[in-house]
């Protein structure tokens, strides 16, 4: 049988474990050109919160009764595709929260099935060598474009995207400054190359940030939104660039509660540029970016911390752990 | 004697006439390389509100006791500069609210003194052939970059910048949609080439805007900020561009009262780009832009409405008229 986590109902406010229910279905048969994989890893990513919201989003969501969406790594157990054989390791955005998945390797764009490359941990294709790594790469190299010596502030700095972003910023000659929610996370950020860090739970966050960024913030890689966003915006340098990548701090709130200081005044005074990022727009750059990230890793310039929960039954718990910031590093589930 | 309006005190909340006081000083003598001009026109522009706020801004402000800053057109009455003669007409940002001004024609950048060209109304150098026209030109050609057929929404659409922006958008093949505060203003916008218009005082502004922009807003030229900004942001199309040019709707409020819906969610979903514009950054493009605007005007593709108050003593009244939106077209004072 194939165990699956299906969406029971849309969350109202913060998601809870009751939003999903565990069900069973027969293991499916792959059709012509398809493969059947047994899941080995599930990836927990903040974008998945948007997929269980009833409102319109940039991608189709999960309806109640459907299998929860999510990326993962699996091993081929049956192949009707000439390029894939039993035992091959596959990474795909379209795995879903289930023990077995049928995939179409030739699907276009972000639905494509990717081969796990040799010489890296297989689950790296879900983190620094996958979608979060590409997000960090595109955000900095296409939107933020830090110049050597500039200050780059990254929120959720020890998270799946933030860890990579900090090290890319450093590789670009910039000065990465971490925002994270605990002193342990900040110590990790310093250990992997951040120049400084501030704790967003500090009562003196604005002053701490000013001390860490005495010449202001040239690039802000925003993974959280909310009050952290407001604090950094107030300290933008002239001609700053802001990458709006995530809003995990407020994504569980109804849209009409995401209220704060409007940005116009700061944007006019600083002539800053703010741009929303959805990495799937840049999927055509995936292979080139992954090659660059793999080179950084081989050169010892990319370190990465994971937070692994064991067992398929823990998928909802892992998701909620990430949503609340209790994870420390990229949140994964190992099946 | 030289009558001058000096700042009496910084406004707290909305500016009032009491913020300035009328004084007299001897008519000054131009030094070497300088000219003395007698003012003929004063320009009233929203940026001037920022110059009488005590907080830091992108340019130095006016301290209490100093002559109010502002642009204008004047006639040379004494020249110590080889290129300027008595009777020449000069336009400059640095005139100030006074009947006579001493200027340094060779000053760099935005402080430069410009000759009023032949064949246009002299006060056009304060509006469509001057700083507001350049603002509209740069905002659309360098930041908004509308493509033919795209929808361009412009707030304060009948104002100094908005009138020009609408006609540039049309000249670029886009579809300009006006937001203004009265039906008279909207009728004027339609007459000069806007494709549609909505009244921001309507109780059904969001629905009206949706009807006027059925495919969403590709470019938003924001001159007002505030609730109008929020309404348009909620209707951005994918990959929209937002030019944050002004915030006259909220500029009289303390910064911590400019509160509203944060933009992150809309920016991520639409991957929109938002950029603050201060036209002085683009002063090196001034002559080329002015030549293009003059060509549009000669070709009959640029119409422009002015709102003229007579008499130097009415400078504060004219400024407050513009701040409140009671003006209809570019606000000027004729001396």
* Uncertain runs of chain A: none
Overall strand count of chain A? 16
Task: Quote the CATH topology of the largest domain in chain A.
Answer: Quinone Oxidoreductase, Chain A, domain 1
Task: Assign a percent range to the helix content of chain A.
Answer: 25-40%
User: Taking Cα atoms only, what radius of gyration of chain A do you get, to the nearest Å?
Assistant: 20 Å
Strand portion of chain A: 25-35%
Tally of DSSP helical segments of chain A: 9
User: What is the distance, rounded to the nearest whole angstrom, between the alpha carbons of the first and last residues of chain A?
Assistant: 15 Å
What is the element string of chain A, with H for helices and E for strands?
A: EEEHEEEEHEHEHEHEHEEHEHEHE
Oligomer kind: homodimer
Features:
homodimer, 335 residues, alpha/beta, Quinone Oxidoreductase, Chain A, domain 1, Rossmann fold, 2 domains, 6-stranded parallel beta sheet, 9 helices, 16 strands, globular
Describe what you observe in this structure:
The structure is a homodimer of 335-residue chains. Helices cover 25% and strands 26% of the residues of chain A. The first copy, chain A, has 9 helices and 16 strands. In chain A, strand 15, helix 9 and strand 16 form a beta-alpha-beta unit. Chain A is globular, with a radius of gyration of 20 Å. Chains A and B meet through helix 6, strand 13, helix 7 and strand 14 of A and helix 6, strand 13, helix 7 and strand 14 of B.
């Amino acid at each position: 049988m194939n165990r699956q986590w299906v969406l029971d109902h849309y969350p109202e406010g913060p998601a809870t474990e009751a939003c999903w229910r565990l069900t069973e279905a027969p293991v499916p048969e792959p059709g012509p050109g398809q493969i059947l994989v047994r899941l080995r890893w599930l990836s927990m990513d903040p974008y998945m919160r948007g997929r269980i919201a009833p409102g319109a989003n940039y991608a189709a969501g999960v309806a109640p009764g459907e299998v929860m969406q999510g990326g993962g790594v699996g091993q081929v157990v049956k192949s009707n595709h000439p390029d894939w054989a039993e035992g091959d390791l596959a990474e795909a955005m379209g795995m879903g929260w289930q023990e077995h998945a049928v995939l179409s390797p030739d699907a276009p764009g972000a639905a494509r099935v990717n081969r796990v490359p040799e010489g890296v941990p297989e689950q790296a294709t879900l983190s620094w060598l996958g979608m979060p790594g590409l997000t960090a790469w595109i955000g900095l190299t296409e939107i933020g474009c830090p110049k050597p010596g500039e200050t780059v502030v990254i929120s959720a700095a020890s998270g799946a995207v933030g860890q990579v972003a900090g090290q890319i910023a450093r590789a670009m000659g910039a000065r990465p400054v971490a925002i994270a929610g605990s002193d342990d996370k900040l110590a990790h950020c310093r250990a992997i190359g951040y120049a400084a860090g501030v704790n967003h739970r500090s009562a003196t966050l604005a002053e701490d940030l000013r001390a860490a960024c005495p010449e202001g913030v040239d690039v802000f890689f925003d993974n959280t939104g909310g009050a952290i966003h407001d604090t950094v915006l107030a300290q933008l340098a002239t001609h700053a660039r802001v990458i709006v990548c995530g809003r995990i701090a407020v994504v569980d709130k109804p849209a009409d509660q995401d209220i704060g200081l409007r940005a116009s005044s700061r944007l006019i005074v600083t002539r800053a540029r703010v741009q929303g990022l959805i990495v799937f727009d840049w999927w055509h750059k995936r292979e080139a970016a992954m090659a660059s990230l793999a080179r950084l890793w081989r050169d010892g310039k990319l370190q990465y911390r994971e937070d692994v929960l064991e067992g398929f039954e823990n998928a909802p718990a892992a998701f909620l752990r990430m949503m609340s910031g209790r994870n420390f590093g990229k949140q994964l589930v190992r099946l």
